[in-house]
Design a protein that fits this description.
This protein is an all-alpha fold and about 170 residues long. It has two domains: about 40 residues, no CATH class; about 120 residues, no CATH class. It contains eight helices and no strands. The longest helix has 20 residues. It is globular, with a radius of gyration of 19 Å.
């Protein structure tokens, strides 16, 4: 189980620990003095999206411009944070989380880039926030195979790609 504490992992060299590539390896390096092996689920076929934006259908129908503005602003924000001047954002992060250090933030950004957590694959052409029908279908098919989801569901009723895949913010990547 995930305990938010690397001590059991550090104490037992034969153990494993789940975690976030942007956080736990840093904690292990600091507390344990070694670089842990890292295995990303994405490298073993887990191809679902980690973060999505959920919006009420009524909002999409009545205020699509607000949804588009939010999606575009989020993409541009990520580009500016990863590739631009992120000092103001980092200052806000540290203000809200006094335990956060510049060193941890720098490590996290480095890991986000190194492992393509936010910007890789489809996002390189379609922009941050990109999603595809094929990838969504792939995840659904895996869940059906694992008997977690029922077969025959029209999954396209559950999402829209109308607000993404437009390359918004690509020009901000440096």
């Amino acid at each position: 189980p995930y305990t938010f504490n690397p001590a059991p992992f550090i104490a037992n060299k034969k153990s494993i620990q789940q975690g976030y590539v942007t956080s736990e390896p840093f904690a292990v390096q600091k507390a344990g003095g070694f670089v842990p092996n890292q295995f990303l689920l994405a490298d073993y076929g887990w191809d679902t999206y980690a973060t999505t934006v959920e919006v009420m259908q009524d909002t999409i129908d009545k205020r699509p411009e607000v949804v588009q503005c939010f999606v575009d602003g989020s993409a541009k924000g990520w580009y500016n944070y990863l590739y631009g001047d992120n000092k103001a954002a980092n200052d806000m992060i540290k203000k809200d989380n006094p335990d956060m250090t510049d060193e941890q933030i720098a490590f996290s950004i480095e890991q986000l880039k190194k492992f393509g957590v936010v910007d890789s694959g489809d996002t390189e052409k379609l922009g941050i926030g990109a999603m595809t029908d094929a990838r969504i279908q792939s995840f659904y098919d895996k869940m059906v195979k694992a008997k977690v989801a029922q077969p025959g569901i029209d999954i396209k009723k559950a999402y829209t790609l109308a607000f993404i895949n437009k390359g918004v913010g690509l020009e901000l990547k440096k």
